[in-house]
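Researcher: Quick one. two chains, 515 residues in total.
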Amino acid sequence: MTETEGATIQQQAIAWHVRLREAGDEEWDSFLLWLEADPARSAAFDAASRADHAIEAAAFPSGAANDDRHEDGRRKLKLHRSVWGILAATAAGVAALAVAPSLLGTVDSRYEIATAPGQQRTLALEDGSVARLNGSTRLVLDHAYPRAVELAAGEAVFEVRHDAAHPFVVTAGNQSVTDVGTAFNVVRDGPRFAIEVIEGAVRYERRDGAVALSAGQILAVRGSERPVLDRAQPRTMAGWRRGQLSYRSAPISNVAGDLTRSLGVEVSVDPSLAAMPFTGSVRAGKDAEAAVSGFAATLGLRARRQGNSWRIERGPATSG
Amino acid sequence: MTAQRARARPIISQAEAAHGGLEALLVTNRAALIRYARARQASQEEAEDLLQELFVKLRTQPSGPVASPRAYLYRMAENLLTDRRRSEGRRRGREEAWVCAQSGDTLDRYDAPSPEQALIARETLATVAAALALLPPRTVSIFRLYRIDGIPRKQIALDLGISVSAIEKHLQRAYQAVVEAQARIDGDNLERQRP
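Model:
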């Protein structure tokens, strides 16, 4: 690229922004070299991108509202037959600029959906799949990529519409669950991550490996430890949907986390007890007191209430 | 009944990972894309997250033939980067509003702007629109032809009977006006936040 005499960094950045729209491999390589010469250039390029976004939203509110996109996320552009017709129309259009109600949401493709503690929701996703969210759950979606969902936190069942050409991918940090058309439950609670395959098959992947899972299989992993596989009847999976949580040798900290999510009340466990294994079922209906104290009693532990929080600790099972 | 420990799985071979032509290219160009993200001032961690996101997004798309594959990947990386930055800005703004508003009864949290953000957005839009209205109509039209209608610069130049560099000057002017308007708005917003 020929550097214009005296062109400021901002002007150079704008020039690059314009050229990159039509650029091939070599120009992108050159752009990378331009960026690397001075860290300040990246910010100037950001300013050009922001300007681009703002101009689109400000000057062309109806044209900019279309959601058709190419694979790389770029908006699909409509070609007009007559350049001159456009010029005439646009000249009038600039004079009558309508201020769009919000810059946000018309040209951006990413969006989030979240539930409050104890709140459950079922969503119809754009691609025809269904997501059933447990409480305290946050999904990050993108209109440009309707078959990709990030599970930022919480728990959901995904009933994926079958489409062999477009795999459905749920991500959680550096982990992914890929699926062509099936139903599975997935939970993410800090370092804890688990998949229950209810129907069909999925592929769990991480940087260091991958494993295929089919209906009836469970995968559980903590942080970057090696995943652990298990089996269960599909009809017992995603028990939170029926208010019946089932466990096999699960640390009670997991149960506490699930109760928190499903009941909408904070349930914690004395750290010295957190790893204690539990096998059995817990009813997690609307009555939080019954659920938590019942669970504690099963283990010979106590459930102590503090306002709207519960703590499971050593002590007599009967409440004081 | 004991849980089975997953046997040690081999790391996916490059061939296995690349079930689409573009995924294979992503594997080959991994270092270059990380370098690009770093040059765009992303941290090493952010760069690796971005690459992960690229893999996922490519996987959900059909992989047809692409004219300039490396350019395609760089463009995709740039779009994801910009999207993330914009989302982060909005989330930070929304979380601040969330805390300030203390709205405990608001259950659903969509990616919708708070009233404060909507107001700022409207004002920004009005200021940017005003800046554009000061430009010659032809400049705005050329922007539209290039940016919205996707007509190549060479074609616009031919149709209007002017040079490509004249087209580029018009585009430069439009962007520069808005960059300056936004810099003023940012300055004003900072002033507003001071107690």
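Residues 1-19, 96-111 of chain B have pLDDT under 50 and may be disordered.
Researcher: Thanks, that's what I needed.
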